Amino acid sequence: MNFALSDEQEFLREAARDALGRVATLAAARDALEDPAAILDLWPVAVKAGWPGLLISEPAGGAGLGTFDALLVAERLGAVLARVPFIGLMPATALLDRAAHPCLEAVATGERRPVFVPARPPVSGAESWTVEDGHGRSAPAPRVIRSGAHPRLDGQAAYVIDAPDADLLVVAATDATGSPVAAVVDAMQVQPVAAYDASRSVGHVTFDNVPAELLDVDSAELTDAWYLVQALIAAEAVGTVEAALGVSVSYAKDRYAFGRAIGSYQAVKHEIVEVLRRLENARALQFYAGWARDSRPAEFPLAASAARSVAGNALDFAARAMINVHGGIGATWEHDAPLVFRRAQLTRRLAGGHADATYRVGQAVLHNPRLVTAA
Question: Which pTM value belongs to this model?
Answer without folding.
Answer: 0.95
